[in-house]
Amino acid sequence: RPDDSGGMVFSTGDRVEVYGLTHENVVHLNGTKGIVVGNSDGYHRVQTEDGDKVDLRAKHLRRDESVIDSNIALEHYAAGDVVILHGLKQDAFNGKTGVVLKGMNQAGRYPVRVSALGKSVKLKPSNLRRLNKVGMDFTPQKSGKQKALDILIQRCIMIELEESKTVPEKLMENYGTLMLAYMTKGETKSAQFVWKRIPKAWKKVSYLKGIWELGRCLLLKDRKTFFLTLDKTKWPTTLVPFVDDLRSSTQLRMAQFIQKAYSSISARKCMDLLGLKDSKELDKFAKSAFWTYNVGDEYVYPAVLALSNKNSQGLPLSTLREMSSCIARFEIS
């Protein structure tokens, strides 16, 4: 049936193709294929095969006729595959992501854990669509913030070189700022060298000891103690913004590690690695990263919402599982 804009109304889970866009900023999307993952204010949110999300009116969408249901029905799934549900009579199920628990049973159905519904369901392969194990891109970008850190480090080094002109309190604070800036950039070894050249008497200052404790935890890969130290140490007001930046950058690196190393991870361990206090914080983070998790779940599945591309030359799932097992042996405790 048509909507107010003259196009068809699509349901969550429908495969569509973009067409008819004329503006120079979006004309490149014509021909892009994807899946409808939501609807709001007259727009359909489409997850493209590249993993991007775009909001489009129905008049710029048409059904992807290249998808043949019989071919979908013949597709086989393995335990751990992330899928999206579609074509079900209960509309509340359509568009939800789930994880295949094991192979097809004798009735020709796959048991699928759907976290958003808080239960497992047995579904026909024709009601499943495979998703790649790709979530948010956590790769650090060379941004204005990174350049600002470089400038801050150079400024701190200059203040240290001119220490005869600087009062001791400001010089101590400068050492703390310099160590925090290095750690935020991921250069904890450089922060260690700064700590070594701080006068011995100053190393007893509580916040300087706290900063070095953070560096020590990073070097030892002790993320749980790292976040506990962040929370329990009383930081000078002038250092709080730098401490917050360090928390964010460390959490970002850990999210990148989790996403690469795990197809599933216990909720408790995930909270420890990311410095999250409870399941509500984890739920909020998981949703922002497009991971599969709901409050009360035992596991987090950091692998959702990028459509499978059959033309890609990715590694087979079995190989990826083998690699994940190897990485897990070196996981952060």
Automatic annotation (TrEMBL):
Coiled coil: none annotated. Residues 173-298 form the CSN8/PSMD8/EIF3K domain. GO terms for biological process: COP9 signalosome assembly; protein deneddylation. Gene3D superfamilies: 1.25.40.990. GO terms for cellular component: COP9 signalosome; cytoplasm. It is found in: Cytoplasm; Nucleus. Keywords: Cytoplasm, Nucleus, Signalosome. PANTHER family: COP9 SIGNALOSOME COMPLEX SUBUNIT 8. This is CSN8/PSMD8/EIF3K domain-containing protein. It comes from Lotharella globosa.
